[in-house]
Amino acid sequence: MEKDNFLKIAQKEKNDEREIFINDKSSVWISRALIGIAAFISAIKESQNLPFLDILAMLCLSIGVGELYKYFARKEIKYLFLFILLFTVGLVAIVFFLKDLYYG
């Protein structure tokens, strides 16, 4: 979508541009906090020799969904590539996590 289309959609939904900007910025800070918390918990789990693949899967898949949304909104191939990469890493992490969980 182009900038004008986003503006028309926002005006049709009667959203204030400031509100949209604040929501976008809050999403960025939510993502940063998610990454920071996941890194902290993963470091603790790794220091205790516990698997951290569950957190890796959660992080990759949640950020991947955001990249997929950006791809559909902007139609830029880099976002699709990031989604495929993150989704693949997330699925591999889930498989290894479940393998460790059930087969030790």
From TrEMBL:
- Which is a Pfam family this sequence falls into? DUF6442
Q: Do you know which InterPro entries this protein is assigned to?
A: DUF6442
Keyword hit for Membrane = yes
Keywords, ordered alphabetically: Membrane, Transmembrane, Transmembrane helix
Can you tell which superkingdom this protein's organism belongs to?
A: Bacteria
Q: Which residues are listed as membrane-spanning?
A: 27-44, 50-72, 79-98
Protein name in the entry: Uncharacterized protein
Q: Name the species this protein comes from.
A: Facklamia miroungae
